[in-house]
């Protein structure tokens, strides 16, 4: 019998419709995988097996009658950042201890409305702050990929490390994730999975724990380009509860897959060839260019002169917004309270114990850059630089470019506790150097696995699109997937 | 620009995060690393450039001025570390 957990969403959707198997069988297979693997990978922080079984049973009843939504009976994992009614929702922070919302985020409500089955909540960097999933209160997530001939534990990337690791290790069919500076695309690249951050305003932010509100966007991580298109179609919506949700109907992204890219113009920005980038990444980028050229796309060189300023501007804007958003965790309304001699000391003690080091660093930077006398020098300047970053992209679109191809990350997965990475916070921040420009400009970006490095670790390529033109990214992403194939780690866990 | 340990302690106080002397010293180095990194923005000519306030060209949506939600005080206080009769309980703040 086929291993049901190795199916893609597209395959399972057909199999369920044909009654080759039931959602209950599918769901049980995933619960079995999670039970066997989670001790090794730590991808889930809460498993909702009973709820999953109930949902699967309800889906089976619908499927038996030939009914059901676009994701009927498909088992998914949910990043701990999304509010799920009555279920663990802590952004993997100590400060939200025991928090169980009485409401459901719009993104997850959309998935359940379409019939998806929730397996549980996935590990992540605390408040989505990190690029290696080493800042979670629930411990490190382990990448199912290892270097050839090595047992060394590698990071899955972050902040959606649990989502990426769970998909790569077949602990769910697909997962929700979020991306503020690269948190979907970087872990996808490091685990051989596909991840798309849609245009800002495409997925509602309602019910998703806020990190940096002008940058945060939800999106899926999945095995294939097609699966990510299926998931995004369900996750995205026009939501009156989020004023930044844009009034544009969600298109059928899957319809774009398989369409020819002949005549489409793909921009290659030389500024993404950064110092210290590995030769293998450069070679992979060239491969991607060749694949798209062979498929009939036109390749053009473009200039993006403000690229290098995106990351420093991000490290002003994102912490500033975070310091404001995280002010609500005060020991009064949610989770943890650590007593003090008066209310101010209670606040200070609660936040000192409840937040991890990376979160504290960002709150302090954010508080400093917004404090009296520094606002113009930091925040206002960063917002002006952001205008210039967006202008670089706008010029490319005005010149007829349909999408931009870049590497997804400057390196493959690195070791847990890597000394070099932890020698200075800025070293870790450099992981997002290719992805953060996209958040600063509010654009869609997809990371597609494109090959393995000499150690046998996956590497990804990123396609950046015009606002609300996710369809073109799926269309081009499929060309890369067709040429590169898909990548599965050799099983050593559970 | 760089910060000294006293500034870090002042900012931590503003952010309502208790820091020990040792932590403040350690954080001073880390924050200066980050502030040094963002200093490269000084190279950019921002004369006459407007700050970006929204990445999407859309005027703020407005909804009808009507009551759509409410009467959920029990839900609102259900996750509080201390509550009584749907009120949040806090240490005494007035003498």
Automatic annotation (TrEMBL), chain A:
GO MF annotations, alphabetized? ATP binding; glutaminyl-tRNA synthase (glutamine-hydrolyzing) activity; transferase activity
Q: Which UniProt keywords apply?
A: ATP-binding, Ligase, Nucleotide-binding, Protein biosynthesis, Transferase
Keyword Endoplasmic reticulum present in the record's keywords: the answer is: no
Residues forming the catalytic site:
79, 159, 183
**What Enzyme Commission number does this protein have?**
6.3.5.7
Q: What class of enzyme is it?
A: ligase
Looking at the record, the residues that make up the Amidase domain are 25-473
Checking PROSITE patterns in the record gives: AMIDASES
- Has keyword Endoplasmic reticulum? no
Its recorded reaction(s) are: L-glutamyl-tRNA(Gln) + L-glutamine + ATP + H2O = L-glutaminyl-tRNA(Gln) + L-glutamate + ADP + phosphate + H(+)
**Single GO biological process annotation from the record:** translation
Please give the GO cellular component terms listed in this UniProt entry.
glutamyl-tRNA(Gln) amidotransferase complex
**Which family does the record claim for this protein?**
Belongs to the amidase family. GatA subfamily.
Q: What does this protein do?
A: Hydrolyzes indole-3-acetamide (IAM) into indole-3-acetic acid (IAA). Allows the formation of correctly charged Gln-tRNA(Gln) through the transamidation of misacylated Glu-tRNA(Gln) in organisms which lack glutaminyl-tRNA synthetase. The reaction takes place in the presence of glutamine and ATP through an activated gamma-phospho-Glu-tRNA(Gln).
**Which proteins does it associate with, and in what oligomeric form?**
Heterotrimer of A, B and C subunits.
In Swiss-Prot or TrEMBL terms, this protein is called: Glutamyl-tRNA(Gln) amidotransferase subunit A
In which organism is this protein found?
Roseibium hamelinense
Q: Could you tell me the gene encoding this protein?
A: gatA
TrEMBL record, chain B:
- Pfam families the record matches: GatC
The record's section on InterPro entries has: Asp/Glu-ADT_sf_sub_c, GatC
TM regions (residue ranges): none
Which EC numbers does the record give? 6.3.5.-
For whether the record's keyword set contains Ligase, the answer is yes
Q: Which UniProt keywords are listed? A: ATP-binding, Ligase, Nucleotide-binding, Protein biosynthesis, Transferase
Reactions this protein catalyses: L-glutamyl-tRNA(Gln) + L-glutamine + ATP + H2O = L-glutaminyl-tRNA(Gln) + L-glutamate + ADP + phosphate + H(+); L-aspartyl-tRNA(Asn) + L-glutamine + ATP + H2O = L-asparaginyl-tRNA(Asn) + L-glutamate + ADP + phosphate + 2 H(+)
Please cite one Gene Ontology biological process associated with this protein. glutaminyl-tRNAGln biosynthesis via transamidation
- Kindly list the GO molecular function terms attached to this UniProt entry: asparaginyl-tRNA synthase (glutamine-hydrolyzing) activity; ATP binding; glutaminyl-tRNA synthase (glutamine-hydrolyzing) activity; transferase activity
Record-stated family: Belongs to the GatC family.
Task: Give the protein's function.
Answer: Allows the formation of correctly charged Asn-tRNA(Asn) or Gln-tRNA(Gln) through the transamidation of misacylated Asp-tRNA(Asn) or Glu-tRNA(Gln) in organisms which lack either or both of asparaginyl-tRNA or glutaminyl-tRNA synthetases. The reaction takes place in the presence of glutamine and ATP through an activated phospho-Asp-tRNA(Asn) or phospho-Glu-tRNA(Gln).
PANTHER family, sorted = GLUTAMYL-TRNA(GLN) AMIDOTRANSFERASE SUBUNIT C, MITOCHONDRIAL (PTHR15004:SF0)
Oligomeric form and interacting partners? Heterotrimer of A, B and C subunits.
- Listed name of the protein: Aspartyl/glutamyl-tRNA(Asn/Gln) amidotransferase subunit C
Its lineage opens with: Bacteria, Pseudomonadati, Pseudomonadota, Alphaproteobacteria, Hyphomicrobiales
């Amino acid at each position: 019998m086929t291993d049901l957990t190795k199916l893609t969403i597209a395959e399972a959707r057909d199999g369920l419709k044909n009654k080759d198997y039931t959602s209950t069988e599918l769901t049980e297979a995933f619960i079995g995988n999670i039970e066997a693997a989670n001790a090794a990978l730590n991808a889930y922080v809460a498993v909702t097996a009973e709820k999953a079984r109930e949902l699967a049973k309800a889906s089976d009843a619908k499927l038996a009658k030939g009914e059901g939504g676009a994701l009927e009976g498909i088992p998914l994992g949910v990043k701990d950042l999304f509010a799920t009614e009555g279920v663990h929702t802590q952004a993997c922070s100590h400060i939200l201890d025991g928090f169980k919302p009485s409401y459901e985020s719009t993104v997850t409500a959309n998935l359940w409305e379409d019939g998806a089955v929730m397996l549980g909540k996935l590990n992540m960097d605390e408040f989505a702050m990190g690029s290696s999933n080493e800042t979670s209160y629930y411990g490190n997530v382990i990448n199912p990929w290892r270097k050839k001939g090595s047992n060394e534990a590698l990071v899955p990337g972050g902040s959606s490390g649990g989502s990426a690791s769970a998909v790569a290790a077949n602990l769910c069919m697909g997962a929700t994730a979020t991306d503020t500076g690269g948190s979907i695309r970087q872990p996808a690249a490091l685990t051989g999975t596909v991840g798309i951050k849609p245009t800002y305003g495409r997925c509602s932010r309602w019910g998703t724990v806020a990190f940096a509100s002008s940058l945060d966007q939800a999106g899926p991580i999945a095995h294939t380009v097609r699966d990510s298109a299926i998931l995004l179609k369900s996750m995205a919506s026009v939501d009156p509860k989020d004023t930044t949700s844009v009034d544009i109907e969600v298109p059928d992204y899957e319809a774009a897959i398989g369409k020819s890219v002949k005549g489409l113009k793909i921009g290659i920005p030389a500024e993404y060839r950064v110092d210290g980038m590995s030769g293998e990444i450069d070679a992979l980028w060239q491969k991607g260019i060749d694949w798209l050229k062979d498929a009939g796309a036109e390749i053009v060189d473009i200039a993006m002169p403000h690229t290098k300023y995106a990351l420093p501007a991000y490290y002003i804007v994102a912490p500033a917004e975070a310091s404001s958003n995280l002010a609500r965790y005060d020991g009064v309304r949610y989770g943890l309270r650590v007593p003090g001699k008066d209310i101010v000391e209670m606040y200070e003690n609660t936040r000192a114990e409840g937040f991890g080091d990376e979160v504290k660093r960002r709150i302090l930077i954010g508080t400093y850059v917004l404090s009296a006398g520094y606002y113009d020098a930091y925040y206002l300047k960063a917002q002006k630089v952001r205008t210039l970053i967006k202008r670089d992209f706008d010029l490319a679109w005005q010149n007829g470019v349909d999408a931009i191809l870049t590497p997804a990350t400057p390196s493959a997965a690195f070791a847990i506790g890597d000394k070099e990475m932890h020698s200075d916070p800025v070293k870790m921040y450099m992981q997002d150097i290719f992805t953060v420009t996209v958040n600063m400009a509010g654009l869609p970006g997809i990371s597609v696995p494109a090959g393995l490095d000499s150690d046998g670790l996956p590497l990804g390529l990123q396609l950046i699109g015009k606002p609300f033109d996710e369809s073109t990214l799926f269309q081009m992403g499929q060309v890369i997937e067709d040429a590169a194939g898909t990548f599965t780690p050799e099983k050593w866990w559970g | 620009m760089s910060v000294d340990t006293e500034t870090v302690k002042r900012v931590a106080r503003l952010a309502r995060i208790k820091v020990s002397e040792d932590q403040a010293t350690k954080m001073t180095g880390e924050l200066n690393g980050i502030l040094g990194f963002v200093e490269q923005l000084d190279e950019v000519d921002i004369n006459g450039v407007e700050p970006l306030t929204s990445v999407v060209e859309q005027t703020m949506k407005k909804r009808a001025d009507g009551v759509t939600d409410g009467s959920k005080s029990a839900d609102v206080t259900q996750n509080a570390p201390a509550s009584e009769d749907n009120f949040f309980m806090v240490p005494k703040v007035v003498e």
